Amino acid sequence: MSDAVFRGLTRAAAITVLIILSGIIISLVYGSWPALRAFGLTFLVDESWNPVTERFGAIAPIYGTIVTSVIAMLIAVPVGLFIAMFLTELCPMWLRRPIGIAIELLAGIPSIIYGIWGLFVFAPFLQQYVQPFLIEVFGNVPVLSTLFAGPPYGIGVLTAGLILAIMVLPFITSISRDVFEAVPPVLKEAAYGLGCTTWEVARYVVLPYTRVGVIGGVMLGLGRALGETMAVTFVIGNAHHISGSILAPGTTISATIANEFTEAVGDLYTSSLIALGLILFVITFIVLAFARLMLMRLNAKVGG
């Protein structure tokens, strides 16, 4: 294959991605236009979701999407990094392979399996043991008493966040482990030679050297958390309202679309669901753009 043909094939492949992305954006904007024209910007801040009166608002699904993703990342990022650090720096050789296979198996489980397990096993466990404990412990603590208020339903925003944390954990762990293993041994040996502890080597050598890869893994996990559908639909409760308690039922953008798209009757109802898809697309784009900006600032800081 000549250079000209190879260049043409690669360029065509890259342009195809742009064409597909542009087509998705145009379709979402076109499909959501009736809802955006009818409700305007109030669609973004209205909590109403009533197909009978054809009054729709997106703030409840937006809130559920963001809160469940934040809960998932708060748990999965530190745990995933610690697991990756253990596997690359501290784990005995005979134990690395079983743990690595277990992580890869977690990544390969379909999301609907997580949803079924979450609904029939995890949610009842939380309802019986964890949520009553949280309500009792934090019931008199300011702020936390609001976050952990109400009856223990089992399902809810917290349960969905925990399920998402389990689902994104393998992605963050696998990518972090791979980039940690790419650190040149001479850098770590030099740090150990200066008397650094394992934590200091991880903090001042491994993490700075692999920050781009680690942030990439975190963003990949966050992207999956934002768009995850079936597992969340099973355990979040699918309630279109905002509650200060993370134990209460809620909904997410993807769960709302999955639950109601087949039942949507009327152009405005269908258009409102497509508008939710457009909002999810914009949220994902903002998150990725912010991550890219953060990486550029880090690189500029190191270069300066």
From TrEMBL:
The chain crosses the membrane at residues 12-36, 56-87, 99-123, 155-175, 268-291. Keywords: Cell inner membrane, Cell membrane, Membrane, Phosphate transport, Transmembrane, Transmembrane helix, Transport. It is a multi-pass membrane protein. One of its GO terms (biological process) is phosphate ion transport. Residues 62-291 form the ABC transmembrane type-1 domain. InterPro entries: MetI-like, MetI-like_sf, Phosphate_PstC, Phosphate_Transport_Permease. SUPFAM superfamilies: MetI-like. It is found in: Cell inner membrane; Cell membrane. The keyword Cell inner membrane applies. Gene3D superfamilies: MetI-like (1.10.3720.10). Its main location: membrane. GO terms for molecular function: phosphate transmembrane transporter activity. It holds the Pfam family BPD_transp_1. GO terms for cellular component: plasma membrane. Part of the binding-protein-dependent transport system for phosphate; probably responsible for the translocation of the substrate across the membrane. Belongs to the binding-protein-dependent transport system permease family. CysTW subfamily. This is Phosphate transport system permease protein. It comes from Pseudolabrys taiwanensis.
